[in-house]
Amino acid sequence: MASSDPLEPSTPYKLKQTLTAHKRAVSAVKFSSDGRLLGSCSADKTLRTWSTSADFSALQEFHGHAQGISDLAFSSDSRHVCSASDDKTVRLWDVETGSLIKTLQGHTNYVFCVNFNPQSNMIVSGSFDETVRVWDVKTGKCLKVLPAHSDPVTAANFNRDGSLIVSSSYDGLCRIWDASTGHCMKTLIDDENPPVSFVKFSPNGKFILVGTLDNTLRLWNFSTGKFLKTYTGHVNSKYCISSAFSVTNGKYIVSGSEDNCVYLWELQTRKIVQKLEGHTDTVISVSCHPTQNMIASGALGSDKTIRIWTQERD
Question: What is the C-alpha R_g of the chain?
């Protein structure tokens, strides 16, 4: 984009650092809610944590899963991290020591996505077994099995007060659940019905961002069930690529892409304001730092790196 474009963020994001530690495809990257840590997980069966201070030093490596890991999530206080694996388990770890606290067993196929509720006393997970499970963190017991979808579950997220869960699936549906009763409150369906590859609540909890395998991101108002915005230009027809809200300097939507780039759209105008180039394979996961103008991205097996992008003041 030409820098004369008035919609470009005042300073473009630039590559700050490349982290090379994973031996196979990176599957997810997430910042902790206090912003002090970055977590990453991989098909290499490991989960890693990094310090977000100046040098992005490697902190812990978490070993124990028998197969590749697809997702991770930090608890709100950053003391725990959980991981979702093809070994059909969710594991709960101590962030500081790297030790395993609990293994959550019950899913009958690959566990693909995982998140804590804001209170961090519950974990939600979604699986290729087509269910969403809600777990009690303290006991490790499964509290609920939601017969959520008719195809693999691609994402499961709590809203900001933990009262609702949103799930998505290759079956083309997004469903909103009451977290305490497990009751399905709403099903969002698009006319076209493309497979849904990702979903998450907006920071204010009023909207959901939905990624579909027709190269499109959509913003829904879930209380009215209406589409508000559509974001296109990236490539996503194959993989479950995560997207994120960037709110530290203006409001943007950030997503990975199968053309090896990270895309930034201005939320309101839906215009692409930046395209970050550097990865050498599909960018499968992105995460925005909670307080700094910083984006982390992770890429698949021909690349295997995590890249850190920042808006530096010149």
Answer: 18
| Distance, CA of 200 to CA of 209 (rounded, Å) | 5
The Cβ of residue 36 has, within 10 Å, a number of other Cβ atoms equal to 15
Q: Six-digit token pair at 89? A: 């388990």
Cα separation, 81 vs 62, in Å, equals: 10
Half-sphere exposure of 279 (CA within 13 A, CB side): 33
- The first and second tokens of residue 148, run together, are 């959520």
Q: What is the pLDDT of residues 32-53, one digit of tens each?
A: 999 999 999 999 999 999 999 8
Does the pTM surpass 0.85? The reply is: yes
Q: Which residues of 278-295 are buried (b: 16+ CB within 10 A; e: fewer)?
A: bbebbbbbbbbbeeebbb
- The arithmetic mean of pLDDT across residues 251-267, rounded, is 97
How close are the terminal C-alpha atoms of the chain, in Å? Answer: 18
pLDDT at 193: 87
- Burial (CB count <10 Å: 0-12, 13-18, 19+), residue 99: exposed
Q: Rounded distance, CA 130 to CA 152, Å? A: 5
